[in-house]
Amino acid sequence: MGSKNKLRRFRENETFENVIQPSREELEKDQFSLKGNWNKDFFKNDNPIVLELGCGKGEYTIGLSKQDSTKNFIGIDIKGARFWRGAKTAIEEDLENVAFLRTQIELIDRVFAENEVDEIWITFPDPQIKYKRTKHRLTNAEFLQKYKHILKAEGLVNLKTDSEFMHGYTLGLLHGEGHEILYAHHDIYKNEYSPKAVREIQTFYEKQYLDQGKPITYIQFRIK
């Protein structure tokens, strides 16, 4: 993507009512006004809140919102030029249960209050295979504790990935820490019992992986 195109998208994001872009300083000082107030002040309803972490173009955020209008969906990514597409689509299609938030995932507990979130989706994250990159894996022990803080007691986490490494790493961690695994499969398109949302929503890159014959894996779990 050219730099001019990126700048245009950044400028357009600033005009979108469904895009929130707090400063890092604001979050680090714990001064973000929507924390604990997403339902009341932004969505203006009491519907469950579902997050997509590292949402990219927002394909899952948009897809899930179309499947269930009784929930609120927030796509989160630090790269605003990417989720511009999802934000624009939500506006064009009058999807009032969709928002996009530009921030780092490690600040997630500065953005949402304790027990404010009902469900989290992590779709095709960078597996960060090198050991020294473990701290950046979105399913490492530290991130799981951040998710636990903002999730309600029965809150769900979904991991969908093409990375066998990420799938295996996460399963091992979940077993080792005693978390509740509700569903796990190493090839969802070969399992007729795979959840609807996992099979029917496909990202741009997922379609490429499928064309290459790569299996898509999925885990759903609760953090204990």
From TrEMBL:
It catalyses: guanosine(46) in tRNA + S-adenosyl-L-methionine = N(7)-methylguanosine(46) in tRNA + S-adenosyl-L-homocysteine. Substrate binds at residues 130, 162, 203-206. It comes from the Bacteria. Its EC number is 2.1.1.33. GO terms for cellular component: tRNA methyltransferase complex. Pathway: tRNA modification; N(7)-methylguanine-tRNA biosynthesis. InterPro entries: SAM-dependent_MTases_sf, tRNA_(Gua-N-7)_MeTrfase_Trmb, tRNA_methyltr_TrmB_bact. Keywords: Methyltransferase, S-adenosyl-L-methionine, Transferase, tRNA processing. One of its GO terms (molecular function) is tRNA (guanine(46)-N7)-methyltransferase activity. PROSITE patterns: SAM_MT_TRMB. It holds the Pfam family Methyltransf_4. S-adenosyl-L-methionine binds at residues 52, 77, 126. Catalyzes the formation of N(7)-methylguanine at position 46 (m7G46) in tRNA. NCBIfam families: PRK00121.2-2, tRNA (guanosine(46)-N7)-methyltransferase TrmB. Belongs to the class I-like SAM-binding methyltransferase superfamily. TrmB family. This is tRNA (guanine-N(7)-)-methyltransferase. It comes from Salegentibacter salarius.
